[in-house]
Amino acid sequence: MITKQLLTIKSHMQIAEDTFEVVLHSPLAKELKPGQFVHIALANHMLRRPVSVAGVDTESETFTIIFKIFGAGTRELSKFQAGDSLDVILPCGSYYPVDQLEIDHALIVGGGIGVPPLYYLAKTLKEKGIKVTSVLGFQSKEQIFYEEKFQALGNTYIATNDGSYGKKGFVTDIINELNPAFDYFFSCGPTPMLKAVSGQLDGHKGYISLEERMGCGVGTCYACVVPLKEDPKKSKKICKDGPVFSANEVILT
Amino acid sequence: MNLTTRLPGLTLKNPVMPASGCFGFGKEYSQFYDLSELGAIIVKAATGEARYGNPTPRVAETSSGMLNAIGLQNPGVEKIIEEELPFLRSYDTPVIANVAGSTVEEYVKVTETLNRSEDIAAIELNISCPNVKEGGVQFGTDPSLAKEVTYQVKEASDYPVYVKLSPNVSNIVEMAKAVADAGADGLSMINTLTGMQINLKQRKPIIANKTGGLSGPAIKPIAIRMIYEVRQALDIPIIGMGGIITAEDALEFLLAGANAVAVGTANFQNPLACPEIINDLPSVLKQYGFDSVEDVIGKGHV
């Protein structure tokens, strides 16, 4: 059940260049599934900011979000401290249907700030005994986060656009070289990356997660729609029907 | 405290309703509270056929507001009647349908189709959407076109007709008079103001449609001024809107001359905006020396 809550920040720290990890306490933490997001209000902003969930700890009733400073809203969000409160709508959107899939080996493909929801997903898959291979792309060495955490779940390969760490280039370059065996892929990142990955892995089963400027975040305003492949005159709402879609469900523009 | 307010075809238990386009058809916000708390509900615009709307991005945040260019995306009036409106039957709240179109014929067709529905209490005639290429705001910025479409829709409608006025005009009273002359039962004002925001890094407008409608607290003083001017000139009932966030804002609209108020953008920031305003209204009215909503209407005029 979606609801609006005032949540206490348990920890708030910088984990990479312009990138912050925030842990929030909520009795609803356990309801949050991999791929879902929360919608955060900021005092000086008309619109909430959608931020995806990077992890859940049911025992402490906490969940983790990771965001990068892109504009004034995320800058404001970066200035909070442990003990402060945030006005949050949760849980929002669809999730990776891990319980309904028969998987032996998952390929995780993440880019930049698309990486956080994939960590929660990879961890969930690993706990179910599924083998996980992760390919992650970042702009530069300074922006990399969670590399060790992904390594602990399975083989992890890093690409940087500027070559300052790992392979110079894109996640698609690593996938080309590795030619990994997998039965489902899961991808989240900037739309150009999702397009490239979906094209490269065309014919494979998989799921992608999209981002878009949102209004309400709950499905009423029709701001964040994406056209469907089966009928481009029809669309789905990224905030409510998504952000997770089947690999061939929507048209990426 | 008596919060009742009466408008043609609408006896409202309180003067607060969500504005069209900011509340879908009610389902999503019904997860947050009982929609029976609302004075009324104005649902999303209906056109003759399904419309896809504009490319994304469709929204951008601004100082104290937001721009949107959704482009009247909706499943078409038939589907709205069959698949969306029945959900609202279980709530003790009148529903106002919003009618949009590209031509007078389309407005009339949507209106006639809505006559078949027993799930609505009134229609809001949307002649002020700034985000579609044809129709919409052209009817709302030319008094003779506004008069014509209002007349035709009023002739076609079994329900009271509230005409939603555009603020993108230099003389709002002239527009109000034109639609009042054509038989409008009431006015709904204001719609959004056309605006633009440019992304500095990308060197292009943020919204794919380039321009969008500005809403939120940024436009509230314009809404107050326009309602005040129209109330000075006409006795016609007004549903006032434009940047209402708090019960104090609602009071200000009532003082300017609105008979009821609609809350739009605030729903996005706070899904509980409408019930919180309704809850706060009695104490705010009392604080400023009023015993009922109907006491307040138009009392801000000097």
Structure description:
The complex is a heterodimer of chains A (253) and B (302). By secondary structure, chain A is α/β, with parallel strands linked by helices. Chain A has helices spanning 72-77, 115-127, 147-151, 171-178, 191-200, and strands at 3-16, 19-25, 37-41, 49-57, 62-68, 85-92, 105-111, 131-138, 156-160, 167-168, 184-188, 205-209, 225-227, 235-237, 244-246. Chain A has three domains: 3-92, Elongation Factor Tu (Ef-tu), domain 3; 98-204, Rossmann fold; 210-253, Dihydroorotate dehydrogenase B (pyrk subunit), domain 3 (Ribbon). In chain B, the strands form four sheets. Chain B has an eight-stranded parallel beta sheet, with helices on one face. In chain B, strand 1 (5-7) and strand 2 form a beta hairpin. In chain B, helix 4 (143-156) runs parallel beside helix 5 (172-181) and helix 5 (172-181) packs across helix 6 (220-233). The mean pLDDT of chain B is 96. Classes of the chains: A alpha/beta (253), B alpha/beta (302). The interface between A and B is medium-sized, with 32 and 37 residues.
